[in-house]
Write a structure and sequence with these properties.
heterodimer, A: about 240 residues, alpha/beta, Rossmann fold, five-stranded parallel β-sheet, 8 helices, about 50% helix, B: about 240 residues, 9 helices, 5 strands, about 10% strand, disordered N terminus, disordered C terminus
Amino acid sequence: MPRFSWYGDGMPGVSLEDLTGWLIVIEGTDGAGRTTHIDRLRLELERAGYAVAETGLTRSDLASRGIRQAKRGNTLGANAFNLFYATDFADRLQHQILPALRAGFVMLTDRYIYSLIARAIVRGADPEWIRQVYGFAPKPDAVFYLRIEIPDLVPRVLTSGGFDYWESGMDIRMGADLYDSFVKYQGALIGQFDRLAQEDGFDVIDATRTVDEIHGYLWEKVSALLDKNPQPAWSPEGV
Amino acid sequence: MSATETPIPIPAAHGERRREYSGQLFIVEGIDGSGKSTQLSLLAQWLRSSGYPVVYSEWNSSPIVRATTRRGKRSKLLTPLTFSLIHATDFSDRVEREIIPSLKAGGIVLADRYVYTAFARDVVRGVNRRWVRSLYQFAPIPTQAFYFRVPLDIALRRILSARAKLKHYEAGLDLALHADPSESYKLFQSRLLTEYETIVQEHGLTVMDATLSVEAQQRRLRAAIRGSLPSPRGRGGRPYA
């Protein structure tokens, strides 16, 4: 029995039995601390002797440049953007994530299909449709959702360079200015995430706790997960 | 991969949505060399000269997405899945920014290839039949869709004599059916023909005999759409130029 299952219909030609690595996802809005925790997890995992790989949204060879360009001019239709992100994800899935999982790596993923589904729904996509589109993705071993409410998020965003056009949902202009739009947009995203968290069983973490507390929790969960599902044959020996 | 092959019923919402549009959407489908593009451009000329506001939409033509598609093709980065998704991205951009606004404005939209091209190509490449149909659910249903049916040898004769070199994906070389581009192209096209026949049944495409003379086909095409056309009208009762 393969440990992995598909989010939907799956992908032709891929056998889940071949995926011996671990797929660990950190979700959460910008400013929730995803990068910090991925960096720390990576260090700890490598110290324990695991091979680690990383990926994140819009890092594909195929589509990252195109997405950047389309963002600069904001000239792509909203639904086309949804599908452009899906293209980027599919490219990374096939060229980064699946090869790493076949090779027995721990794949740390900075956001996954859930962020993409949430942002599409907030932009008016039919929820059932966008989930079907991502039916070719494997379900991760674990999804850690760093949850943060707007009042806690705003000061973090202000100190780290201010409100970003896209992170404020300005392409769909949800408010009169960046701040108003940011509040409404992030609020809508949190709403979607809360729903996804329930439906897809995320591990919800209060992102206002200290970095050490959160890291401690993450490491406990991740190491338990790796211990519970040891690798066949060439499992990394503890160093 | 689940082998479920039941066609997804087209959601009612999409049929509903089309009724809101005052324009008309006519599309042509067929393999390379079926003569569909010639027929569509003749139809466009006729409609324009009769005073209709005609909008022509071509497959694979959204300016922003095209650069990525070209990059993927040139570097052979595309898998069947990303091939499918990047074409859906391109198409979605055209639907949102060109096709739907034109239909709302009462235009006659003529599309050279439509979702059925993706249904045929992507499934031949091994993408799940049901998944690709659900991927394109955002597409308005055409007023009428024409499939130009042509025997393989006639289409091949038209194409292979005129084209110097077949491109990688065009020849279906990514499917590894044959090492020789023109042999691969033949095998690929014959699989597309089979897939198109399924689509014709499933989606009720109007079959056109693409072996007839250009003029005979055009007469039939005009006759077929005449019934769906509103009376041409322009500002001050004069036809659009």
